[in-house]
């Protein structure tokens, strides 16, 4: 009987109790005779068999850190205060939540590390789409993100977001570090948690319908608004955030004449974002004279050094539709139809270089030549 008699010897009835030092019901899950065996008659909880409540065998330490030292998620209502699950102590390893096999761990696994396997159906090892990447119990890789999903998950729109150098895991999942560190809150809780500021529904069900980040600044049309498609939608073009031809400010007027790259270096309409795009500010080519890294949603200003506006550079977004088309950029700003002299660069005493001194021979030269009333 587990060496009880040997330990006790041939002592008479009523002598001090001793222990069973090799019985399988006091195993630690690594070998049939391992673990602790308290003296017969002693009051003991989990430590009657295990070294400590936070058993260090296999991947226990890692899991108990996540569960707050709770055993019940993996061992059918086990309580560290002393309650063993129903099938405990039956000479094999039983891993399940509420019904045998519900975590995907082999039932009635043999005692010993040679039988360690993975929980193929455990929701805590979920990639967000109710699929599991679960390493075998005791595998060192369980300390990394790959214990549950790829370092960069392939689900939804992860690839397109993480491929952008400006987007790190922590931008959407606070505290997460790619490949090593889980988010600081909400991870492993059976739902999907995205930083609240992005407007994604909190505690979305694993495997449920994808939602949208309705308030994410990275999906911004420059006016703190924008388009955000449902996560998982494949667009890979400008319409992920704004219209292919944005209608904000003076875009419509300019796009009738110029290409996107004229003002936004490296941009190709509908397909390619330029340098600095999606960095949470407004970037316009330096040659325009517009301030760099302009705050999203801030007051419109003008392109002060932009030659395409000749002698004038109205504030972006100014409605000039009632003015003569030519005078919207140069000449005298005239409502209705302007004369040739009013349209000419340098109108109102300013030449194409912006000079206005009366002593400058160039000032007003166009008007003087085009105005038939001048002699």
Write down the overall mean pLDDT.
Answer: 80
The strands making up the biggest β-sheet line up spatially as: 1-2
Q: What is the radius of gyration? A: 36 Å
Beta content:
under 5%
**Helix/strand class:** little secondary structure
What does this structure look like?
- This protein has 375 residues and is low in regular secondary structure.
- The chain has helices at residues 4-8, 60-67, 158-162, 169-172, 251-255, 340-343, 365-370, and strands at residues 191-192, 204-205, 281-282, 294-295.
- The strands form two sheets. It has a two-stranded antiparallel ribbon. Strands 3-4 form a two-stranded antiparallel ribbon.
- The protein is rod-shaped.
- The termini are far apart.
- The model has no long low-confidence stretch (mean pLDDT 80).
What descriptive keywords fit this protein?
about 375 residues, little secondary structure, two-stranded antiparallel ribbon, two-stranded antiparallel sheet, 7 helices, 4 strands
Write the layout of secondary structure elements.
Layout: H1 4-8, H2 60-67, H3 158-162, H4 169-172, E1 191-192, E2 204-205, H5 251-255, E3 281-282, E4 294-295, H6 340-343, H7 365-370
Antiparallel strand pairs: 1-2, 3-4
Give the gist of this structure.
The protein is largely without helices or strands and 375 residues long. It has 7 helices and 4 strands; from the N terminus they run ααααββαββαα. Strands 1-2 form a two-stranded antiparallel sheet.
């Amino acid at each position: 009987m587990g060496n009880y008699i040997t330990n006790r010897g041939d002592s008479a009835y009523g002598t001090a109790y001793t222990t069973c030092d090799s019985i399988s019901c006091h195993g630690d899950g690594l070998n049939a005779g391992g673990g602790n065996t308290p003296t017969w008659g002693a009051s003991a909880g989990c430590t009657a068999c295990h070294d400590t409540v936070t058993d260090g065998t296999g991947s226990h330490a890692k899991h108990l850190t996540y569960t707050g030292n709770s055993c019940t998620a993996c061992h059918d209502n086990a309580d560290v205060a002393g309650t063993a699950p129903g099938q405990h102590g039956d000479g094999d390893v039983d891993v399940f939540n509420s019904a045998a096999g519900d975590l995907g761990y082999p039932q009635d696994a043999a005692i010993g590390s040679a039988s360690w396997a993975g929980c193929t159906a455990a929701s805590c090892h979920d990639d967000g789409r109710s699929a599991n990447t679960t390493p075998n119990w005791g595998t060192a890789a369980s300390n990394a993100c790959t214990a549950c999903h790829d370092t960069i998950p392939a689900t939804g729109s992860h690839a397109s977001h993480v491929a952008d150098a400006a987007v790190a895991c922590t931008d959407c999942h606070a505290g997460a570090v790619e490949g090593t560190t889980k988010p600081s809150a909400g991870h492993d809780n059976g739902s999907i948690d995205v930083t609240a500021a992005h407007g994604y529904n909190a505690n979305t069900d694993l495997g449920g319908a994808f939602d949208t980040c309705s308030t994410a600044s990275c999906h911004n049309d420059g006016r703190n608004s924008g388009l955000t498609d449902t996560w998982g939608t494949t667009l890979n073009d400008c319409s992920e955030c704004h219209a292919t031809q944005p209608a904000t400010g003076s875009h419509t007027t300019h796009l009738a004449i110029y290409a996107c790259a004229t003002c936004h270096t490296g941009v190709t309409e509908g397909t390619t974002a330029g340098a600095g795009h999606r960095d949470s500010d407004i970037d316009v080519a330096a040659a325009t004279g517009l301030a760099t890294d302009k705050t999203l949603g801030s007051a419109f200003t003008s392109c002060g050094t932009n030659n395409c506006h000749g002698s004038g550079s109205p504030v972006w977004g100014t409605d000039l539709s009632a003015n003569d088309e030519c005078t919207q950029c140069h000449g005298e700003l005239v409502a209705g139809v302007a004369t040739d002299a009013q349209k000419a660069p340098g109108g109102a005493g300013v030449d194409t270089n912006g000079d206005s001194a009366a002593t400058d021979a160039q000032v007003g030269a166009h008007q003087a030549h085009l105005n038939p009333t001048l002699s």
